[in-house]
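[agent] plan:
  1. take the single chain provided in the ticket
  2. run structure prediction with default settings
  3. attach structure tokens to the ticket
  4. add a short note for the reviewer (M.T.)
[agent] executing step 1
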Amino acid sequence: QVQLVESGGGLVQPGGSLRLSCAASGRIFSILTMGWYRQAPGKQREQVAGITSGGATNYADSVKGRFTISRDNAKNTVYLQMNSLKIEDTAVYYCYANELRGGITYGNWGQGTQVTVFS
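[agent] step 2 finished; step 3 output follows
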């Protein structure tokens, strides 16, 4: 069982920056990938960014060039640096971690952190 806790959300002006953090704890065997998705009211969930244990990354087209994902494997923590924020980035951001236990892959999700971009 893995627990994920997000932090770093808040209120920012368009063009501003935020850095989100997500720390995994509990009975951790091996975390394969970690990342972020977001969901705004009335919209479908959107995959934002992901990163493998080896450092390979992927981003949604909507955030490429503005967001950077990174991780600290020793701390089981993933980060999302968000720059040049836009109003449309407003959403609840959720952390996820895919772990391998006994040869089976499990998905875990955090409770989310609110990001609000306003003018």
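[agent] step 4 note for reviewer: The longest strand covers residues 91-101.
[agent] ticket updated
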